[in-house]
Amino acid sequence: MGGDHAGERDGADPGGAGASLSAEDLPDGVVIADRTGRVVVFNRMAARLLRRPADSVLGRDFRDAFPLYDADGRNWWKCSDPYGGLRTRTRQPERTLFLADGREILMTARYVRDEPLGAVVRLVVTLRDASHRARWERSRADLVSTVAHELRSPLTSVKGFTATLLAKWGRLTEKQKIFMLETVNADADRVTRLITELLSVSRIESGRLEIRRQLVDLPDLARKLIAGRVAADEAEDRYRLEVHGPLPEMWLDADKIEQIMANLVENAVRHGAGTVTIVIEPHEGGAAVSVRDEGKGIAPEAVPRVFRRFWRSRRRGGTGLGLFIVKGLIEAHGGTITVCRAPSGGAEFRFTVPADTPEFA
After folding, report:
1. Fewer CB atoms inside 10 A, N or C side of the chain?
2. How many domains does the chain have?
3. Could you tell me the CATH number of the domain that includes residue 180?
4. Range of 166's domain?
5. Do 157 and 283 sit in the same domain of this protein?
């Protein structure tokens, strides 16, 4: 009785058409073998992953129909012996195995027994394409490599200057001390920015990004951003702010909107040229903010990749995380961002955000 109910939960009743239909709706490959090891369910995704038509598999022994191998080239079905071995087994956790053509595949299995410690009456196997996981692992490796590279330079500088200050304090001039301390301070800021980027990436990808809404004056935020850059010895005429029309009350996360605007302006300064223009205007009950430069712009073939992780301009370096974070922060506000050719010929990043209301705060 318990075994029959388990089969219904799996959608694995080999005698009913409903089982095959439900298996076809699943995003994973599903293969089900009966008590004799004969394949009775083989859905479309399984056929796609194994590159075998269903009629060449159904009715055959599962061991011959789709052999799987471990990393040492051993036949997995012989090693695991699903219908034999310990009768306490109920499942096989997900593991990476290999098809005969060398492709990796992720496999999990469930052993459905007629009663506790009884014989296996159904073997339910699910299959997934391992290439997605491989890409994810490569992406993680790229992130670690990028972070290590970006941290090495400022930390080497901090270590060198602090060691020099400690060892030669009495022999250094005031000018030398100030220069070294300013460099250490700037490098510490660089490390802090990198850590902030990594935390943002983590929260965006895990869905744990919190938006704390408050009333935000977008033009005032832009003015403060420009004033801060001018105070850091940048030319005042490098920046222009245009505000078109009255804006509604904007309930946004002030810190995150400031991070978005600062990142886009920094991107325009670093990768563009000429005047950086910030345009703020009403848009469908909310607001639109455009950041334009007068540089060479972004090549059309690169536009689809701009907001991906690790995208970098060929002309400059960086972590390649900034625009990915910008997109995540904007979408967390319910907005969108696009990139196109600016009227002056450079790049224009334009994002829109809804006004929202105080009850979201």
Report:
1. N
2. 3
3. 1.10.287.130
4. 134-206
5. no
Those residues with Cβ within 8 angstroms of residue 74's Cβ, 6 or more apart along the chain or in another chain: none
Residue type, 112: V
How far is residue 83's CA from residue 80's CA, in Å, rounded to a whole number? 9
- What lies within 8 Å, CB to CB, of 133 at 6+ separation is 96, 106
Asked whether residue 37 falls in the same domain as residue 146, the answer is: no
Question: If pLDDT is split at 50, 70 and 90, which confidence band does 208 have?
Answer: confident
With a CB cutoff of 8 Å and minimum separation 6, the contacts of 91 are 108, 109, 110, 111
d(CA 230, CA 333): 29
Judged by average pLDDT, the poorest of 85-89, 190-194, 213-217, 319-323 is 319-323
pTM of the predicted structure, to 2 decimals: 0.55
The pLDDT tens digits for 263-286 are 899 888 888 888 999 999 999 889
Strands of 239-243's sheet in order across: 239-243, 276-283, 286-292, 347-353, 336-341
Place of tokens 């563009």: 272
Check whether residue 270 and residue 173 sit in a common domain: no
Q: Residue 218 has which token pair? A: 């977008």
Task: State the number of CA atoms in the 13 A half-sphere of 338 facing the CB.
Answer: 5
Q: Do 236 and 350 sit in the same domain of this protein?
A: yes
What CATH number did the domain enclosing 305 receive? 3.30.565.10
Q: Distance from first CA to last CA of the chain, Å, rounded?
A: 54
| pLDDT of 111 higher than 90 | yes
**DSSP per-residue letters across 198-227:** HHHHHHHHHT------EEE-HHHHHHHHHH
- Asked if 220 and 196 sit in the same domain, the reply is no
Non-local (6+) Cβ contacts of 279 within 8 A are 242, 243, 244, 288, 289, 290, 292
Neighbour count for residue 102 (Cβ, 10 Å): 7
Claim to verify: residue 350 and residue 225 sit in the same structural domain = yes
Count of Cβ atoms closer than 10 Å to residue 26 Cβ:
14
